[in-house]
Amino acid sequence: MVAEVIYGDQLAASLREEMKEEVTKLKASGISPKLVVVLIGDDPASKSYVSGKQKAADFIGIDSELISLPSTTEEKSLLELIERLNNDQSVHGILVQLPLPKQINEQAIIEAIDPSKDVDGFHPISIGRMLTQQETFLPCTPYGIVTMLQSKNIDIAGKHAVIVGRSNIVGKPVGQLLLNEHATVSYCHSRTKDLSAITKQADILIVAVGREKMIDASFIKPGAVVIDVGVNRTNEGTLTGDVDFESAKAVSSYITPVPKGVGPMTITMLMKNTIQAAKAHNKKK
Ligand SMILES: Nc1nc(=O)c2c([nH]1)NC[C@@H]1CN(c3ccc(C(=O)N[C@@H](CCC(=O)O)C(=O)O)cc3)C=[N+]21
């Protein structure tokens, strides 16, 4: 079997077209969605993701403001900035680019963001709402992954989804979202014994570890769906995933590439959440 490639960039482009139309209508009714992105320091990878977000926002017609602060910024001043943005009625979404420099407690920052503006879906209230299936902002990467599966009409209910990786921003929540879609979910991580014995049981295999080519055909059941969330920068400066694409493609039924896979969908779902935030904000008034 040779897999069909799920191109996240193509799906992202069509969703962005739809969102552009929606934002045009919202603006005509007096709602102008606005996202503020806070970037601390000058890590080149973070800068590149942030510019991707700005580009998507510009295309859709979402106002996006970038606040860049030096890497020496203290936690207190960042908390003050968040407080100001929480109170600014023109701002619908707030995203603080992670990771943060070591003098700043990441969890304290995430918890300072008003849950009604938490378009990353990282606040404990957002996570709790997701867990209990209440309306909330879904974390962008997991949301993008589920949207990619649905775009290909891939059944999730009753399927065995195996997640490799247990980060708070990808591994854990993507398992939860798939559980909400009635998958049977297993989590694997660095302490897992006999990893390939478990990944080989996966109907849907999600890999979010951050280790280049750690998964090849020998970890995959023939016909499985393989979603690669890895974002690894090679020595040559190119971007590569956690999955050995050519090897895995030869045995799977669907596979996502890196780049042009999950990454562009993450950004797209951030835009979707920002529009959702703007609509909810206006209902409240
Ligand atoms: N608060 C916060 N929210 C995030 O959502 C967040 C974050 N911090 N910190 C970093 C990670 C990483 N991330 C990516 C988004 C898009 C691509 C993406 O679009 N990648 C392109 C290629 C881009 C390139 O070549 O640099 C692709 O895969 O085709 C990748 C990675 C969001 N993150």
Automatic annotation (TrEMBL):
Gene that specifies this protein: folD
Alphabetical keyword list: Amino-acid biosynthesis, Histidine biosynthesis, Hydrolase, Methionine biosynthesis, Multifunctional enzyme, NADP, One-carbon metabolism, Oxidoreductase, Purine biosynthesis
Reactions catalysed, as given in the entry: (6R)-5,10-methenyltetrahydrofolate + H2O = (6R)-10-formyltetrahydrofolate + H(+); (6R)-5,10-methylene-5,6,7,8-tetrahydrofolate + NADP(+) = (6R)-5,10-methenyltetrahydrofolate + NADPH
Domain Tetrahydrofolate dehydrogenase/cyclohydrolase NAD(P)-binding: 139-281
Name by which UniProt lists this protein: Bifunctional protein FolD
GO biological process: L-histidine biosynthetic process; methionine biosynthetic process; purine nucleotide biosynthetic process; tetrahydrofolate interconversion
Family listed: Belongs to the tetrahydrofolate dehydrogenase/cyclohydrolase family.
Species assigned in the record: Halolactibacillus alkaliphilus
Complexes and interactors: Homodimer.
Domain Tetrahydrofolate dehydrogenase/cyclohydrolase catalytic: 6-120
Function: Catalyzes the oxidation of 5,10-methylenetetrahydrofolate to 5,10-methenyltetrahydrofolate and then the hydrolysis of 5,10-methenyltetrahydrofolate to 10-formyltetrahydrofolate.
Keyword Amino-acid biosynthesis set for record: yes
GO molecular function: methenyltetrahydrofolate cyclohydrolase activity; methylenetetrahydrofolate dehydrogenase (NADP+) activity
GO CC entries: cytosol
One Pfam family of this chain: THF_DHG_CYH
Alphabetized Gene3D superfamilies for the sequence: Leucine Dehydrogenase, chain A, domain 1 (3.40.50.10860), NAD(P)-binding Rossmann-like Domain (3.40.50.720)
EC number(s) per entry: 1.5.1.5, 3.5.4.9
SUPFAM superfamilies: Aminoacid dehydrogenase-like, N-terminal domain, NAD(P)-binding Rossmann-fold domains
The keyword Amino-acid biosynthesis is annotated on this UniProt entry: yes
Residues annotated for NADP(+) binding in this entry: G165, R166, S167, V231
Lineage top rank: taxon: Bacteria
The protein's annotated pathway: One-carbon metabolism; tetrahydrofolate interconversion
HAMAP family: THF_DHG_CYH
